[in-house]
Amino acid sequence: MSDVILSIDQGTTSSRTLVFSPKGKILFTAQREFPQIYPQDGWVEHDPETIWQSVLKTLQDAHEFCEDNNHQVKGIGITNQRETTLVWNRETGECLYNAIVWQDRRTAAVCRKMAKTFPIEKLNAKTGLLHDPYFSASKIAWILDEVEGARDLAKTGKLAFGTVDCFLIWRLTEGKSHATDATNASRTNLFNIHTQCWDEDLLQLFNVPRSGLADVKDCVADFGTCTVLNEDIPILGVAGDQQAAAIGQACFEVGDIKSTYGTGCFVILNTGEECVTSKNRLLSTICYRLEGQVTYALEGSIFIAGAAVQWLRDGIQIIKSARDTEKYCRSLESNKGVYLVPAFTGLGAPHWDPDARGGLFGLSRDTGRAEIIRATIESVCYQTYDLFTAMAQDGVDPKVLRVDGGMVANDWMVDYLSGVLDIPVERPKVLETTAFGAAALAAIGAGVYDSLDTVKAAWQLDERFEPDMDAETRETVLKAWKSSVEKVLTN
Ligand SMILES: Nc1ncnc2c1ncn2[C@@H]1O[C@H](COP(=O)(O)OP(=O)(O)O)[C@@H](O)[C@H]1O
Ligand SMILES: O=P(O)(O)OC[C@H](O)CO
């Protein structure tokens, strides 16, 4: 019998469960996509039961694989789309409302109003975050205020609130554990990242009762026992997906930086024991917490990356598959002056403009499918550049960037990114760094790994992309991008 770890990766567009060997090799993957729900402009929801069933089914498939192949499961790791918020009844286990997704902008006006009474500097000093609908607190408050009877139930202590990790732990342990980890807690706007406690001032500000919140644990901890399979398995590792990716990319030294291109794009820079405050509206967040010791990070969050590719495929239907984007990009010698600002759900860092909406600029009679596709892929690179500019103004000067996520299968995109950033970009052999990060945490919990050093040893380079864009082209495209962004900003 050989030991394995199960890693659940509950992302924005799909749920996956992967089986990892102790050497970090993927032995099996089960994946299920699920629908996005867009009830109104700027609203994004997921059906909680669909999330749960997609996770359960992939977990059952992965477990069956382990049984068939005589693998002994030593533990479960969980990683998840962050900030997405659920509220459920502790007695029935049923959710009161759909999951309100991280991209959802419905609480923009409330957040703007709050910023007037509770200064952003004060909030940032406690949570490292800003007043923006992205984070969980205003989403919890919305459900409590808008769903009939929710506030009254909350007063009786019968409601539980949580991010997706917390909801899954609850369901996997059949209501025995209401727990989350410090990285997920750090995305709620209710958690003080210095004291490592839920913050009373913020609970009052958002009018969220303490009784609904989970226990906050280290990323390696006893999160409870999964009792929904044929055997009981401990849940031993949890981290938000971007932090898990930073772990899977072995970003353990101060200055190590990674960028993940999934639905959105998230750049995380390890700042070590120091919680660095950005002057340019980047977030300070928890990278990981192990044995009570916090490692902090600076984060740049872009809301639309792969989601724009999905828009090309499912929205305006000009590609059949995400993979097609690469051949269209390569078919053009230049972008012909066409720029897309994909502010479909507002703009995240460094602009933080929830009311901005997208724009397509520089159209001419010969603009066609290829130009629009290329502008979409380029926009993801330019948005990353904007984050790097903000980081540079904060005194950070990365020499190399590690990338992962579904989009980086596109070689053209990674090459262009390197050119725009003017630094080498490294892509690892294992692109499932998020799932690997969560598996590594569970492996440490199970005693299969001694420490994070094992991850460092397992990380392998697939390809290093060297910058090859000439200075003039770079200057031209970045100037045009900047002026396109200015046209969509509302603040
Ligand atoms: N070859 C490709 N070129 C461009 N985008 C791609 C490619 N392959 C996948 N994608 C995009 O990557 C995203 C999926 O990445 P993934 O990391 O699985 O996302 P998530 O975890 O957010 O669900 C999708 O939005 C998809 O459109
Ligand atoms: O689904 P992803 O991979 O784009 O990640 C979502 C983020 O965690 C949102 O903060």
From TrEMBL:
SUPFAM superfamilies: Actin-like ATPase domain. Residues 259-445 form the Carbohydrate kinase FGGY C-terminal domain. Signal peptide: none annotated. Pathway: Polyol metabolism; glycerol degradation via glycerol kinase pathway; sn-glycerol 3-phosphate from glycerol: step 1/1. Its EC number is 2.7.1.30. It catalyses: glycerol + ATP = sn-glycerol 3-phosphate + ADP + H(+). GO terms for cellular component: cytosol. Residues 4-248 form the Carbohydrate kinase FGGY N-terminal domain. GO terms for molecular function: ATP binding; glycerol kinase activity. Keywords: ATP-binding, Glycerol metabolism, Kinase, Nucleotide-binding, Transferase. GO terms for biological process: glycerol catabolic process; glycerol-3-phosphate metabolic process. PROSITE patterns: FGGY_KINASES_1, FGGY_KINASES_2. It comes from the Bacteria. InterPro entries: ATPase_NBD, Carb_kinase_FGGY, Carb_kinase_FGGY_CS, FGGY_C, FGGY_N, Glycerol_kin. Pfam families: FGGY_C, FGGY_N. The keyword Transferase applies. Belongs to the FGGY kinase family. This is glycerol kinase. It comes from Litorimonas taeanensis.
